[in-house]
Structures are given as C-alpha cells and as structure tokens.
Structures
1.
Amino acid sequence: MKCLYKLLIVSVVVCGVCFGAVEPLLAQSAPVKIGFIDLQQVINASEEGRKAQEAIQQKADEYKAQADQIKAKIDMLTEDLKKQMDADALTPAARAEKQDEISKLELDYNRFVNDSREELGKAEQRALQQLLEDIGKLVVEYGQQNGYSVILEAGNILYGADNIEITADVIALYNSRKEQ
C-alpha cells in the first residue's frame, strides 16, 4: 500500500512538472486556425465541375444513342427472322445465316456497351483527378493566405461548426480563377 502512495505522489509530481514545462511552450505558439471543405460540393457547384460533368454526360448520351441503334437493328433482325420462320420462308441455311448475323450483332453490342462503360469511367477518373488537383492547389494557397493551420475534408469530420467551413469561399475563388 505504501508503494502505491509513493507511485501516486511521483506521478502527480511528474505531471505537474510536465504541464509546467509545456504551458509556456503552448503560450508562445501561434493560435491554431482550422477550416474544412466539402470537396464533393466544390466539384458539383463549381463551373469547372459542372463543365466536366456535362462533358461526361454528353459522351454518355452519344454512347447510349449508338448502343440504341445497334439494339434496334438486333430487334428488327430478330423480329424479321421470327416472321420468316413462322411463314416457313427460310431454308435451314438461310435461317442459320440470319441467326449468325444476329449473334454477331449481339456480341458487337455487348462489346460496345462494355467498352463505352470503361471509357466513360476513365474519362470520369481523369476529369475528377484534374479537378482535385486544381482544387488542392487552390486550397493550399487559400490556407496559406488566410492563416490556416489545418484544412480538412468534410467527409472525415464528425462535427464542424459552420463558421469554420470554407467550401463556399473556395467555390467562389475557384470560379473566379477559371473565368480569368
């Protein structure tokens, strides 16, 4: 029991000495200024982000139109084959030829759809990477100019007071820089 009291007293003394030594260091350091930013909101609300999204959507619409044309041709050939088979108007060789043509078109369609998805994914990644690079540089510059110690991404924050959110400021700055 005596040993426990000695340990407690030594601990209190050590803590007191540590806090006594740390307090002057904390008093001398500059105040910490923290901000946070919602990157997804910057991407969605900025002019550059909207332009990138519109370009990707336009490309997606073009791919969809091309895929729809191929699909319509497949449907037309399939319906035509069905009618000719019902009317017994095809020889077995002609039927096999038409089925092969439809199969080839279906294969082309599936390849086109997969290639289109892959290309859109890559385009989206490139655009996102460029946006994040631009925004990252801007945030660093903004933080340095405004005396921030730390700027965090909102997705990793459980709580942040509204007065330290700088998303709107960064969007306005980003838009003004891209207009020049």
2.
Amino acid sequence: MKALADMVEQQKLARLLSRVSASDGARTVEVAGVVAITQVESKTAKGYTLQEWFAEWLNSFKVGNVRACTIDGFKIRFRNLKALYDVPIAEITNLMLSRAINEVKANATKDAVHNLIKQMFAVAFNNRLIETNPAASIPRPKQFAKNEKRAFTQEQEKKFIAVCLANLEQYEPLLICLLQGLRKGEMLALRPNDFDFASGILRIDESYDSAHPEDLQTKNEASNRKMPMFELTRTLLLKYAGMNPNERIYTLSNAALAKRLEQLFNQNLDLPRLTTHELRHTFISRCHEKGIDEIIVQRWVGHAIGSRMTKAVYTHIADDQERKYIELLNAK
C-alpha cells in the first residue's frame, strides 16, 4: 500500500511539474508536503510579454492558492494594462508602469492595479526573469489613500441602523455586516449552525460569492474565527433558529446585495454612500473609538495578528476583559 501511495504522489508531482511553464532559473513546488526544486527549460525574459507573464504568474503562483473570485479580480484589473500587453517584461520601465496606473480613473481600481503590478514584477524579479524591478519604487497612489477606510460617524451609523430596522426584509443583511463587522461574503455564507445563542457566539468559517458558489473558503486563515454575537444581532438572528441548520439564511447574489445598498442610499438620507466593505470599516472605527484593544478588534474581524509574540499575547487575553468590550458595543 505504501508503494502504491508513493507512486500516486510521484505521478501528482510529475503532472504538476509538466504544467509549469518554462522560465529562467529554479522553481520550487510542493505536492503533498514534498518540496521539489526543478530546473525548467530556459526561456529568456524577452520571451515573456506582459500578457504572457500575467498568465504564467496567475496559473503558477495564484490558482489554487487564492479564492476563485480573487482570480477573477486579478483578470479584471489586468485589463487596465492593455497598452502594455505585447511589451516584453524586460523592456517595461518604471515610467511606463506609472503612466498606466495614472490613466486608471477610479481611485480604488487605481490602487488595485498598483498592487497587481507590484506582485507580478516582484515574482518576475525573484525568478530572475528581469534584472531590475521597475515596479519596486512606484509609490501607492495618493488619490486612493485620501479616500481610504471611509466609515460612518456615530450619528450616521444610528441613522443607517434605523433605516435598516424600518425595512428588515430588504436591509437586514446590510445591517448584519455593520453590527458584526463582517465581509459581505462572510455574511452571505451564514447558516443557522453558525449561531450559538446559548453562549452568544457567531462562528465564521465560510465565505460565499455568487460567481463561484462552490468556493466557500474564507479570505485567509485568520478569517476563520468565533466572535461575540452582539445584542441586536442576536435579536435579529433568533428567527432563523428553526431553519435547516445547513441552509444559507441570506440567499442573495452579490449583485442583488449591491442593488439593495444602492436603493437604501437613494432615499435621500444625507449619508455618505459607503460600500458594503466600508460598513465593516464602520464597525472597526466604533471599536477603536470605544478604546477596545487592537488585538481584540483583530480577533473579532479576522485580521491576522502581526508577530509571533503578539499572537501569544492575543491567545491569553482574559475573558472578563473581552466581556467588558462586548458590553461597550452593545450599549449603542
């Protein structure tokens, strides 16, 4: 049996290596815990246009490591670089990349394209496909930084909550994102078996995207978490206790959720038009304003804890301290 298992793993390794496109230098791959370094057929940097390198980078370094919706996002952002598609990556300069970024109109998209370029060229440089990295010194777009991490003020948040409570059938999913600081995929994946009403705990271990309904993995390891179910959330979710425990309680598509948010803001409420993700920013802002420890906030919202030392501290936070913070947020 062991010989058969070894043969199967070797076949897997051979298949994976056969899919790796040619490049200059060594490539490290991992199959079933076995790390192998293979020397692939040499290919000069001039052999990779930007479009070819994007396909290689995506298939060799991203597919299988990130969510399918993230892959879709990379493809959408890459369309902003059409003017450079056929240019060999060794001939692309810092100025060419800066111009391409500056031509993107939407600030958030501009920042996303900047991040994509940084990642692609860092990998190309690390794999010795280019002698210098033209993206290394490109600063993050200032226009995006100015609009970064928007959130409701406390008064705006109260108005938003009131509007949602007045029409729960339409806006309850948005309200849950705000009250618990959830990513929209995490909210759309909620099922009754994620609720522990006795202990007041909400479990987050899946993320739903209507474009890829079979891909339920969360953003990263830190995203899988248990967090307090705050008072208003508990009141809202109690009605789902009798549902099939494995059925999603909010059977919405991403587009339908965006449409509901747009409808809410079209009511002339004198509120800033935040995105669904910025409702999460609002939760984080309230936590900071109430003096809740940063490590607790990271734990609740599923942000990675920085250093190994910080992780050790984070896992030993006293329960009574956390209960104190829960009471702060319940007292809205």
3.
Amino acid sequence: MKILLIQPKMNKRPMDTRLKTRMSPSLALLTLAKLTPSNHQIKIINENMDKINFLEHTDLAAITVTVDVFPRAVQIASEFRKRGVPVVAGGIHITATAEESAHLFDAICVGTAERVWLKVLEDAENGTLQRVYKDSNNLGSDEICEPDYNAIDPKKYLYTNVISTSRGCPHKCDFCYNSCADSVKYVNRPIADVIADITALKTKHVMFIDDNFIGNPDRTREFLICIEPLDLKWNAAVTVNILNHPDLLDLMKRTGCQSLFIGFETINARSLQSVNKKQNSIEKYDVLIREIHSRGIMINASIVFGLPEDDESIFKNTLNWLVKNRIETVTAHILTPYPGTTLHKEMTAKNQIYDFNLSHYNTAHVVFRHEKLTAKQLYDGYISFYKKFYSIKNIIKRIPEDKSQRVPFLMFNFLYRKYGKLTETFSRIIPLNYLGKLAENLSYFKGCKRAQREKRLVKTLQEKACIRY
C-alpha cells in the first residue's frame, strides 16, 4: 500500500513565527514509519510546509492529532474519504476523546501504536478496518519503537535532534492530558536504544523531549552516567522535584545540560492546589532557581494564566518575579480545558466553557468564563506579559550571570522571540537546518574548534544559498 502519514497545520499563537511551525519533526509519525513493514510505501507530509495532494494515489491516510489541529484533521479526513481513501487518526487528542472522534474517521487508534499498527495495516489492506484500535495497557520498556530518523528531510526543520527517553508522566495534573482515563502510562526506554538514537542523529546537541525527564530519578542517574562519555550538550523538561535531588543536578551539569524546561505554572499557591499540582511548592521556587543557576544551567519557565485564584495582579507579579530571578526564557499559556481532562470535566459541570472551536485550544485564546477576570482582561494581560518579558529592558535585566550561557540566551531572546519576524525572513533564504546548526555552533561549541566549525558553516551557508537561490 501507499500510505500517507500526515501532520496537520498548526495554529500559530500571536508570538509564534514560521520558526515555531518548523521547529522539529513529529516523533509520532517517525515512529509509525519505523513500525511500517518495508513492503509498504511511506510518505510523510507535514502540512506546516507541505501541501496535501488529495488527487495523488493513496491507499491509506494516517493523521496524528493534537487538540488545536483537530478541526483541520477532520477536514483532511473528509477530503480523502470523499475519494474513497480510508483514514485512520491517532494521537493524544484522539486518545482523550475516542467516543466523540470515532465517527469522523474510518478508524482511530486509542493509546500507543506499537501493538496495534500492524493490525491496522493488515485490516486496511483487506478492506476490513475496525472502527477502534485500542491499547491502553502498560507498554513494556523493550516494546517502545524508535523513530525512523532516516525518514526526515532535515532541510525542512530548524532542529532534527529530538529524542525521548521515556513515555508519559507519573503525575496527573488536572489540566494535563495525563489526567485522561486512557493516558499513556509512564515507562522508560532502554538506555541502549536512546544511545542508538543519539548515534543515528550524529549530533553533539540533543533535545530530550520527555514529558518528565526525571519521572524516575534513579533511572535518570543511570542514563546520564551512560551518556557522559558522549560529551553532549542537551536540554530537557523536568518538574520542580529536581530540587530534591541536588546530586542529580550536579550530574546534569557534568554531562552537558544547558537548560531545563520547568512547569512552575503559577506563583499563586491557591491556584496550584486547585488543579492538583501537588509536586509544586512555591516556597521552594527561589531556592530551586538559585540551585540551577549556580550550576550554569538556564531555565525555560512554563507559566499558566487564568487559574481559578488568579486576578489582575497575577500578570505584573509573575513578570516581576521572573525578571528578579533572571529566568532566561518563558513559555506562557492561557489556561485551556483540553477535552478528556479532569479540568474539562469540572468546567463542563460548572457550565464555564463557552468556546467549543477546538482550533482555539492552543493556549492563546480564552475559551471559558473566569470567576475573577473577564476574557479581555485575561487575554490582554497574557499578551502584555509576553511583550514586557521580551522587552529590551527586561532582556538585559535577565542576562545570565554565567558567561557561557550569554550567547544562547541572547540568540533566543532577540533572534527567536524579540525579532523573530526578521529571523523568519532569513529562514526563507537559508535552509532551516543550517540556521539551526549555526545557532548550535555559536551557542555551545567554543574555542578553536568552534571557530573552525563556524568558518566552514558560513562557507557552506553561502554555497547552499547560491545553489538553491
């Protein structure tokens, strides 16, 4: 069969640019590509950069679905089904809303794909597709399939060096998909498999994109000890629980950790309690930040506005706290009740949700009634917060004390956020992967070797630009 693996076009938030939509490939689709036997023909289409040719001969279309692209996924499925092409959908949103989604596609996959994908292909080939394929049982560590990194066209992405060391998260925060009934159970991948991925990517800079890199601290220690000889530079997402493991922080620094994404969510203690974020303790936030910064590691803080106890003061107070602590980058969100989560069920029961257009569920729209903030106050406060955090004045105030982190800090704050539109213009001339490599070399690889790399890279960029344009 000829199979199309499709990633629908994402909905950009106000602060996003083309760089965001082409940041990295979908590991979900790369995993499906690896699971597919070689007698089938695979084509991956990322709609953020590729157009779907609905007239092209196709035997099966498979779509990976997150909540905000769900309406587009339904449109894509409708177009294929009109032409007699069966469509199967999977992904985190499908798993969370199986009953509501099933009738919109020929088949859906609920849970993980490893143990059901071959059956989907067999049934599709025989014209006997079932409506639902479900595997919500615990996936064994050795059953996790590695992505097919050979299926990536690197020129389309800023970075291709994305790797997961685990699936799921042991925590069940109310606003997160992990609070859904069929959410993926937390499991670590075999260390040898992760190292094989690093080797396959031929990179010294890795972005570990686990939901929680320290979900099993003992396993994280074991993993870091194993990768220490690789001399990597890496980034990952952790919970505030990392403060309980100072030795692990030391090991992270020793093995090349450059920055940690941390879900602080809010500086309002009562709001944390309202969404079951039990692992967070606001009293320890400042200590945690000092511990991380003292090791020369940067912080990307995740912040959520619109939690139940928030009022208008939350925007200014959060901004001042982040600037005071020299937080290097921030990813802010408007609280969004993802369907299937505990938060969505609670808001539905209270009749708080008034916007049911799922394309607005990208954490940049207000879709519910807040008890203390109007929709305008919440949205305007969110936008104003972003602008002020990335103002030149506040960027300067937040410059890291550790000199080794100043180049990546300035590049992200100015070239990605503050002047992202200008960088986006360059990305239309220079292939994205070369921009990514340039950023990596300038940020992380120093001394004579770095100078040699930069010289070669600049020459390559000039040659590629001339050849391509």
